[in-house]
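Dear support,

I submitted the protein below through the web form. The confirmation email said the job was done, but the results page showed an empty box. After a refresh the structure appeared. I'm attaching both so you can tell me whether what I see now is the final result or a partial one.
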Amino acid sequence: MFTQLSLALNNFIDNDLGHAADQTSLLRKKHKLHLADSLDKGHWTTNLCLVASGIAKVNPRELAVKLAVVLEAIDGVDRVEIAGPGFVNIFLTQDAFLQQAEHTINLAPEINSSLQEKIQIEFVSANPTGPLHVGHGRGAAYGDAIARILSSLGHQVEKEYYVNDAGRQVDILGCSIFLRKFSCTDDESFPASGYQGSYVLEIADSIKLDENAQHIQKEELCKNLPDDPEAEIDELIARIQSNYSDLWPIIRAGGLAYVTQSIKNDLTEFKVEFDQWFFESSLGELSNEMSDISKALHQVKQNHAYEKDGAVWLESTKFGDDKDRVIIREDGRGTYLSADLAYHKNKLDRGFDTIINVWGSDHHGYIKRIEATIEAMGYNKNQMQVQLVQFANLFEDGAKVKMSTRSGNFYTLKQLIDDIGPDAARFYYLSKQADQHLDFDIGIARTHSKDNLYYYVQYAHARICSVQNKYLALGGSLPKVFNSIDGFHACDPLIQLALNFPFVVKSAGENLQPHLIIYYLRDLAQGFHHFYNETNILKAEEQDQANMLRALDLVKNVIASSMELIGIEPLQEM
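What the results page shows now:
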């Protein structure tokens, strides 16, 4: 029915708006045809006449009268009503309404192949310096959910984790492991800027060295260190690299491998699988003219960079940044921006139509400079979309849970998964728009009550399964089609809710907002529980009962499909 109504509206735009015909493309984009939110306003409603009135210079209600005549001629339309300043509400016959429901029950997506894209989503990408904490979980749930939703809409989606293995933070981790491995310090004298967690000891114990490994001069290594914590850790790194050049690469590589594998394990348990793990080190070194990073910097240096105070600066102000940025330091080393520049060149050269970066909200100021690097390399900055995700604050017993990896005293993502399960965790991470603040109470997530929205939604699916099983146990067989029964409309509001499924998915995908699926699941569960509490399904009249069971099957399928789109398994029983 949506296709028939859409075609009729487009024909009305083409044929009945007279001198406004040159605006047909704009009108087709601006007007909306959507399911009515209440059946007393019809099954469908459109604002076309309101949108078109300004262009056609005609009163919107006059246009609505003309449109109503066109729509009432469509098979399956019972009547059309004009509301307010020119809204057109469309009421279907019961047969047409139930036929729509039969189509939706199959949940076959209507995909426009001309709009399909090759999309890359890079998310999580936490520094490989320790276990993922609960703050990282929100970005993981968000990135994976939009990948699933976009894939369901027909896009070719690739998920990528960028491993920042060439940066200073991995050196600090290596230094921390080295100090623990060889008991160079006690807890009190351990560097304040080192990684403090017990997991560092676990990594140190896991690294096996040759029995003939040289003796560590602990006192020499740790004496006369700077007072400044950051200078202290940098000096320790320099001393280890210089004096223990045989051990340093083993320790550093061992720590990196251990943490990266633990991150992979935790994400797998969280139902997040990446197609690609891209290591920053694969971009190569600036000293190698054939490396990706050298090629990328050479490209921008030709027309959009200059030297000043011994450093090389990108003219990023040319492209909307608030100031120019250093891409090569005075000592010849690249900056973080130079690596990001090369990485984004690599992404775009792989042929993606769109690259989506899911970043923490603290990276907001970084967007303009990355856009500048993309334009400086000759690409279109609009190929990149940045989705900012606020870290989630976790509470337990009224206290905020710590999330700092450096301190070592924090609640890990794995602990959260072990506590409430991956599905409940994903559900709550996605329960609010990603760029908005999220407080998440573990205590509520553990309860079996309607206060726990995850439980409330799962209970709706399990309840429908229970009703179906009881009906089958009584010797019945589940109906395969709806029957149009005069005067029976008890299921209509529930069916109307379920019919909204493809539109919610489309909106969630186009706007990259998976929380819309959570909101929809809440409304659908609420509609079902209300219907269930008001209706004794198993004692209803036979014909009415058949339609009820068919409607419940539709709702069950929609709940299950909605959950699967956000990576959650619908439960058959609770």
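Response: this is the final, complete result; the empty box was a page-load delay. The mean pLDDT is 91.
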